[in-house]
Design goal:
Elements lengths: L1 H9 L5 H11 L3 H4 L4 H13 L4 E5 L5 H13 L2 E6 L2 H14 L5 E5 L2 H7 L4 E6 L6 H8 L3 E10 L9 H9 L3 E5 L7 E6 L1
Helix pairs in contact: 1-6, 2-5, 4-5, 7-8
Bound molecules: S-adenosylmethionine.
Length: about 200
């Protein structure tokens, strides 16, 4: 913890240019870390700015690539990200990456099992991203929906390349009268966008 604090102090004032350079350097390990594609991450950034989001919840931090894009936008909106990861190694790497980006002050990275942790977190959220193990998506959706404000959004990743595994979840977001769901056309891996009515 002290080391991370020293690193961020030595790095000087926050600069988005430096944060973007760190995100770029993370791309080399993207496959190993199961990170979203840059196009999807950039959509998270734009959406956070458009909604002027102040509270974002991410389920599945990995090493912080998608979280880093949210955090960069939250630096501008004055908001905060809570992100949850179950794997200690990936969580530790995410903490280092957030520190190197200079965004640790807007990120609360929790090492926890999201299946129990999400129930403990108080809403409301403007944005929730589900990007953990696929059979759990429906459970996360049910846990997250009451914590999203009206006009807020639940995003879910891999709706195209994991569509078979996600069938029960996809059926729910297409038919649930509580949301209006669309899909990000340009997403290669697939991204659902469910707007809470
Ligand atoms: C696809 S990766 C997330 C990628 C990340 N969103 C990004 O784009 O940089 C999924 C992550 O979810 C984590 N995960 C799976 N089940 C989880 C659970 N029950 N609680 C917390 N994290 C979980 C995995 O350990 C893995 O690191």
């Amino acid at each position: 913890m002290i080391l991370l604090l020293l690193v961020s102090l030595l790095a000087g004032p926050y600069s988005e240019q430096r944060a973007r350079a760190v995100l770029e350097s993370m791309r080399k390990d993207a496959r190993r870390n199961m990170s979203v594609d840059p196009a999807d991450a950039q959509f998270f950034y734009r959406l956070t700015l458009e909604l002027k989001a102040r509270r974002v919840l991410e389920i599945g931090t990995s090493t912080g690539y998608s979280g880093g894009w949210f955090a960069m936008a939250l630096k501008k909106t004055g908001g905060r990200l809570i992100t949850i990861e179950i794997d200690p190694g990936r969580h530790a790497e995410a903490l280092k990456n957030f520190a190197a980006m200079g965004v640790s002050d807007v990120v609360e990275a929790r090492l926890a099992n999201a299946l129990t942790e999400v129930a403990r977190i108080e809403g409301p959220f403007d944005i929730v991203l589900i990007d953990a193990w696929k059979p759990d998506y429906l459970r996360y959706y049910e846990l997250a929906l009451p914590k999203v404000r009206r006009g807020g959004v639940i995003l879910a990743h891999n709706t195209r390349n994991a569509a078979f595994e996600l069938r029960p979840f996809l059926e729910r977001i297409r038919t649930d009268p509580a949301v209006r769901t669309e899909f990000l056309a340009e997403s290669v891996q697939g991204l659902s966008i469910s707007w809470k009515k």
